[in-house]
Amino acid sequence: MKLWKKLITIIDTPLWLEIFLCLLLVLRIPSFFEPYYYGDEMIYLALGQGLRQGIPLYLGLHDNKPPLLYLTAAISGNLFLFKVILAFWSLATIYVFWKLVKHLFPKQIKLQNISTIIFGILTTIPLFEGNTVNAELFMIGPVILAFLILLSKKNNLKNLLISGSLISIAALFKIPAAFDILGIIAFWLIYLKFKDVKEFVVKSIYLFLGFIIPIGLTFVWYYFAGGFKEYLVAVFLQNFGYVSSWRPSPVELSFIEKNSPLLIRTGVMFLGFIGLFISRKKLSKEFVFVSAWLLATLFAVTLSERPYPHYFVQSLAPLSILLGMLFSLKTVEQSLTVIPLTIAFFVPFYYKFWYYPTASYYTRFIKFVTKQTTKQEYFKSFSPNVTLNYEIADFLAKSSTKNDRIFVWSNDSSAIYSLSRRLPPIKYVADYHFRDFSNPNEVINILTKTMPKFIVITSSSFPFPELNTFVNENYYIISEIGTSQIWLYINQGE
């Protein structure tokens, strides 16, 4: 009882925040009933299933993100629990965000409330994929907590190491989280006095040391596990090619010409830091910190130049604070917030970020729970192939054991692996993995050596003539579901 009272005292949440968090949890309820359809979630769950079966990550199964997201998927074991974990993680993140804003603006209750409400809603609703399990929603929590520690507590060795480690943990969900460090470093530099240079250097070293420790431990782990090279390539080296990879760029161009947009974005960020430095005496430290943080996150958000809405989640914390300042302050900084906010709103428009409708998401769910639409119709509203994938996965689950290997050639291969809880004999679970990191000959060679029990080919798959030849020589059709074919290894049928 004493421990519970102590915990309540530490948490110390106002009534409105408790009610708000409950409302946000209600807004997440539809996500608990979503079908297995979203490509990234399916990859995470497939790799998580592999971890549960003892298959080493990166060495036995591949994706290009750090391990914590797949470990979380492994702990959950299914989509429902994956969503539940995200829901409570997000609630904790919103609470920590409120604590940060409260520390920055202790007397501005209205600002605290507005910022927290904006942040809570934007990280929950489908607009920026708040309903979807993606790395950004996990990584922002440790970053916010790190900044809360750095700004509210003494910058001693312990707190700096903890903060650096928290940002490292965030980066182990997704690497771009590391760029948030630039925000706090820039903030320190802007207010740096000559006599404090030594202190700044020491603080920075301790912070980076804390950052290196968790990531360094993963390198040690994979070295002794025999997957160091695969880990390095998948999580770090392959992502260099991911940067700006959607922008057409002739190979004959020089490095500077190819990467000029990246260099320009880097320049804009540092010009922003310089502008804050020049204006620092006219601005509050809170405004400078939040603006520097926003600039750092926007740089990270635009690294790949890809228009995925969940990328923008990384910028939502400083963006929400600036919006809170805009709607609540009655000082000159209320007007000045327009400058960083304009930059922030420019990014999704310039890069043509997608967005997901919110109202229709909830109305569809209401129709489903009130039985105005069937479960099948509801599932199809997410993707037309959902029902087909469920039928294929159900057949595979009933016709094989968890140790049997299957191979799925489909745009939805990761969904079928996740639903059936079966895995391929090759390390790739998504069709684009094959196209980006492998080749037809390598795939056929592995299939020839392993001879998976079933091979599934769907009509939506990319052309793979070598696979067609292979199955015709070694397999026979045991089932056709819709326009999809399920092939059984001939020896399995004897």
What do the pLDDT scores average to?
A: 92
Strand portion: under 5%
Question: How many structural domains are formed by the residues?
Answer: 2
Helix fraction, binned, reads: 55-70%
Strand order in space, largest sheet: 1-2-4-3
**Morphology call:** globular
- Unreliable runs: none
Radius of gyration: 25 Å
- Count of separate DSSP helical elements: 24
Decide which structural class fits the backbone: mainly alpha
Can you characterise this structure?
This protein is mostly helical and about 500 residues long. The chain folds into 2 domains: about 20-350, no CATH class; about 385-494, no CATH class. Helices cover about 65% and strands about 5% of the residues. Strands 1-2-4-3 form a 4-stranded mixed beta sheet. β3 (about 475-480) and β4 form a beta hairpin. α13 runs antiparallel to α14 (about 285-300). The protein is globular and about 80 Å long. It starts with a helix and ends in a 5-residue tail after the last strand. The model has no long low-confidence stretch (mean pLDDT about 90).
